[in-house]
């Protein structure tokens, strides 16, 4: 591999992708694209691997995707210059589409009549129809409720727009003009990618162009192997939970990470079966990037010059059983799938903490609360839908740094919407949007603080949907002696009452109503008594930590009347640091839950129910949980399979 050629081609490919991404968000119509940047563009090989992917713009979590399952729906010989393929069907694209609101486009790129590569893009459509504005409700139970689903087809044939497909798209969205405007922005970006790829191939020659592609993919693979090779060989296990719609039972995600030399294997066997809610996602029974994000993010953190492309996943295999939460069968609802992806991420972080002697990070807020508003325009009488804000929460403390306040690093690429834009575009006033004091998980490196947003309605009958809220029951866990973060909360204030309402799903606001959301915070990393006193002082000065907690938790006494000085004599009495061994602090709620449902019992339940035919799972799961849970007595894992098998027979048609 020529290192000079590889570096030149890597930079050219990245620049092409970044330029096209800029075109997309500069010309997009909806807030969620032009402000939050929930979209992406890239170039893929003839085999479907991404080789040119932006690193500064748009969604950065999909570089390991493969568009091959989408392409396999077409006869390659039928593709022509100027074609554009479209789909938003997860089950016909092998999980390339991860929920139906993401509309994917592919444009074949030709050089002198020969297929050169593929331009790809996706956009989160702010509405594709369905039962609620914005098309997503955590309570949906099947994909038919989530709006229009398009199987892979051509929306443009040899440069000629298929107006019938366009009309179907526009007619099935509450904001059809805006959604179509976003797709036009993507097609403009892909035309630019097409032109730039052809231009570069002509300049360097076809052979050099193709060699450059293979070089950058192999270079990313080499970097990934070098990082994985530094991890301890062995098997590592961790379980985490989604709170779901059942107040008595959680949805468990179990991760087994196996490190063997320069290769990693990730197995989610034993995790919960797909659920009767919109938290599922389909991964096509393949090594899907959503199953590996924590590992690929770690690789890019340790080796920041690693090319961002499909080569990152070459030394990784991932498996999720068909019928499980993260490889759900049709017609599973998946609109709220990102909260499940985040918990998969947390479970893999838990494994990596064991494979890396010094650890990596504590748990972050673990939610992506996408706030959407819908209302009737008083002038036109037409429906309006807008995404207000991606509402996250503090990230976990890290081995060498504090967590990030107000945002979980797992979704740090989603940009906050400017307050002015929200108040111009929607009938909402942002009364407060701020960090919350005394919320972060304490540790040598503290977690990120919670963030609060307070929204007041200026009109009647404004519908808010908030998907992806979680960690209202189970705290984000602390690591290596760090304390867990805080849970989230939601308070609705009307003319008559002010009350805690729990996780918001769909809410109708009247004029003057105020919704206040407070996010979870990040867990702490390491013993709080090891924290640098100057950092404790800074947190006090920044208003994020009380003087009392500084003394009681960190052993740092701030001199009376002067918060700018640490009282040295008292500070010297701080406790001695503990051994820096892997440990996890789960929080009281999770400890209580696992005292009744031990991890081993949950894994047995996951395996047994996933193995049932799809039509039997829900009834068998409900009945089995009822029979196995008795007055706080711990569930016997050995009994689970027999109970599920019995109820599977009873519920068989």
TrEMBL record:
InterPro entries on file: Hydantoinase_B, Oxoprolinase-like
Any single Gene Ontology cellular-component annotation: cytosol
GO process annotations (BP): glutathione metabolic process
Superkingdom: Bacteria
Domain Hydantoinase B/oxoprolinase, residue spans: 2-528
Molecular functions (GO terms): 5-oxoprolinase (ATP-hydrolyzing) activity
Protein known as: Hydantoinase B/oxoprolinase family protein
Organism of origin: Bosea sp. NBC_00436
